[in-house]
Amino acid sequence: MDINTEIIENNRTQMRRGVLEYSILLILAGGDEYASSIIQKMKDVNIIVAEGTIYPLLIRLKKLGLLNYRWEESPQGPPRKYYMITDFGRQQLDGLDSAWDELARGIEIIRNVSKHNLR
Amino acid sequence: MDINTEIIENNRTQMRRGVLEYSILLILAGGDEYASSIIQKMKDVNIIVAEGTIYPLLIRLKKLGLLNYRWEESPQGPPRKYYMITDFGRQQLDGLDSAWDELARGIEIIRNVSKHNLR
DNA sequence: TTGAATACCTTGCAACACAAGGTACTGAAA
DNA sequence: TTTCAGTACCTTGTGTTGCAAGGTATTCAA
């Protein structure tokens, strides 16, 4: 990768990392999913997550009491671990909604100031 | 801090980290600033950065060719290191604008799907 | 019984934010 | 003229965390 795209890709990754937990909770608030399907849904909106990221993360979120899971047979292949969001998880999700809104508003502001000046 | 606010604060921090470089470039695209004033401007929009974060970061961005600096006398106290964005920096900033827009769009989408289903 | 597809999980490394601790310059007060 | 407060710069060490790589297990079909 040349340096031109590297810096941007790097930051794109960095930005994504910031919203990993948030997006997982958002997705699970819309319905139960298993790891691979979460990865796919995030990929669909261009938020790339690796397996090595999501499995430990789901375990952590479960430990924190934000998630639970149940095993479910798969049409083919090994059984799937369906994660579901808990009441506590939903409660936390509300806070994350605000956190995201606040960040987005902040970026919006410095963006506008920046444009208003020299750009 | 109780666990209720801890999880949210933690994620708020995580989200902020994702946009650190982006916000610095945004601010410098609006005019030259020195470290402390950058910290202040970010604080104004609720993006908190520590000194121990920003100094190494500015050095890194300079090394990458995104920034330059000049020394300038201060009305009182030691001289200030004013950072300015380079042409290359502006060019990269365009890419970061897109990266941010894309992420925001992604979050928007999964948010809506989530609401449309169960929330 | 071998192979492909799907699913789960762990280990080790590297990046990075930041708390803590430090230096240095200025001007004013004691 | 020393001391203090304010401002500004910088570095070190630590803890967290994302992820590439490598691994196991299940199912079904060829």
Identify the notable features of this structure and list them briefly.
119 residues, homodimer, 12% strand, 3-stranded antiparallel beta sheet, DNA-binding
Describe this structure in words.
The structure is a homodimer of 119-residue chains. Chain A has a single domain (3-118), classed as Arc Repressor Mutant, subunit A (Orthogonal Bundle). The first copy, chain A, starts with a helix and ends with a helix. The first copy, chain A, contains five helices and three strands, in the order H-H-E-H-H-E-E-H. The first copy, chain A, is mainly alpha-helical and 119 residues long. In chain A, 30% of the residues are buried. Chains A and B meet through helix 1, helix 2 and helix 5 of A and helix 1, helix 2 and helix 5 of B. The structure holds a DNA duplex (30 and 30 nucleotides).
Task: Write a concise synopsis of the structure shown.
The structure is a homodimer of 119-residue chains. The first copy, chain A, has 5 helices and 3 strands; from the N terminus they run ααβααββα.
